[in-house]
Amino acid sequence: MMTKILSPARILIVDDHSMVREGLRLRISAFADLEVCGEATTEDEAMSLIAETSPQLIIIDISLKAGHGIELIKRVKAGYPKIKMLVSSGFQESLYAERALRAGAMGYLNKQDSGEKVIEAIRTVLRGERYVSPEITRRLVSQALGNRCESMQPIDLLTDRELEIFRMIGKGQTSGAIAHDLLLSTHTIDTHRENIKRKLGLKNAAELNRDAVQFVLENS
């Protein structure tokens, strides 16, 4: 009886830093049962490659050259529900992990983690299991038991899109630049700015800029 040879799991890397993509590709290529089937730097480029390469798993960064990782996760979840997703980000886990999981990702990995953890996370998610830290697991369990309000901060009131715009404001980007990067109109960005000010109790643009800069400094 012939033994069936399984094809390697196809993995798409979505990250706008070439060195990060190269590092991931080298780590993954060291294992015969895993292969990188494509690389993308933007949200739309990723969607095109998904249709072309049919990956089984996508490794996604939160911050992209154009578009946003959380929005990409939502698009993949809606259009390709069988594809598994793992976030690999430089942002603190407490800031984006829960948002990524709610959007449809199955794991969250910090870019500073070792190569061994990257492969462990990939294999865990490919098995259909979640890969998050014990702290995030504890918080998710607490929320499931109805204790969400205990750990909520004002920043948690922002939607995924508002949080990304808040971060971009903190990096000194204008409404026009943010609109260009997120593929939105400047009017939409200005509306989001007003919603952010209202939710965070900020009186004017100066306070918004001040708090956004502080947020970036504390979470970079």
Brief summary:
With 220 residues, this protein is an alpha/beta fold. Helix content is 53%, strand content 12%.
Mean pLDDT reading? 88
Please describe the biggest sheet, giving its number of strands, its sense, and whether it closes into a barrel.
5 strands, parallel
Oligomer: single chain
Uncertain regions spanning at least 5 consecutive residues: none
- By CATH reckoning, the class of the largest domain would read Alpha Beta
Superfamily (CATH H level) name of the largest domain: Response regulator
The general outline is globular
Straight-line N-to-C gap: 56 Å
Which strand order does the major sheet show? 2-1-3-4-5
The tally of domains stands at: 2
The CATH topology label of the largest domain is: Rossmann fold
Helicity range of the residues? 40-55%
Which structural category fits the helices and strands?
Answer: alpha/beta
Task: Supply Rg.
Answer: 18 Å
Q: DSSP strand (E) fraction? A: 5-15%
Q: What is the level-2 CATH architecture name of the largest domain?
A: 3-Layer(aba) Sandwich
Order of helices and strands: EHEHEHEHEHHHHHH
Number of strands: 5
What this model shows, in words?
With 220 residues, the protein is an alpha/beta fold. The protein has two domains: 9-144, Rossmann fold (3-Layer(aba) Sandwich); 153-218, Winged helix-like DNA-binding domain superfamily/Winged helix DNA-binding domain (Arc Repressor Mutant, subunit A), CATH 1.10.10.10. The protein contains ten helices and five strands; from the N terminus they run βαβαβαβαβαααααα. Helix 2 packs parallel to helix 3 (69-79). The longest helix is centred in the last third of the chain and has 15 residues, at 186-200. The relative contact order is 0.10.
